[in-house]
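Much of what follows relies on a compact textual record of a protein's fold. An example makes this concrete, so a full record is given next.
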Amino acid sequence: MKQEIAALQKLLHVLDDTSTLYHGVAFKTTSSHLKLVMQWTAKTHQWIADDLAERMTAIGGNPERGGSLLGPLRTLQANWRARISPDIELAYATQTLRREDGVLQCFEEAVAAVTGGDLRNHLQMQRREVERACTQIECLVSPMGVRASTEPAWQPIRATAHRAFP
């Protein structure tokens, strides 16, 4: 039971962090589509977190809300990356997609940690809502020209020798 409560608490922290990030960043974007998707995703994360907090209380846990200690640092990082990017909208969309990939990873870890079938099924249902948000963000990012990956892309290094012309 302690393992399930710990997994749910970690998931609550991640959902609260991303919701706070999206609320803070949404008003900085000029794209109305991106703004709406970020606001909708933030509300979805809050709804899921509220629901999971109730379930955590039901199994004997004491949910801590408000995010983790790393949440504000991630917000600063997203703002910094957008500030140095040549395309602010693409930077925010990419950061959002990366955060959603992290939320999905946290859901996978929580599902693996939960032993009860009812709670596991509920987490998988909530995960589908996050996947739907990822799909909507990807639909915005694709026309912008980039698919954000959680892994850095391997880039070959090419060395060329230059010869002086006579």
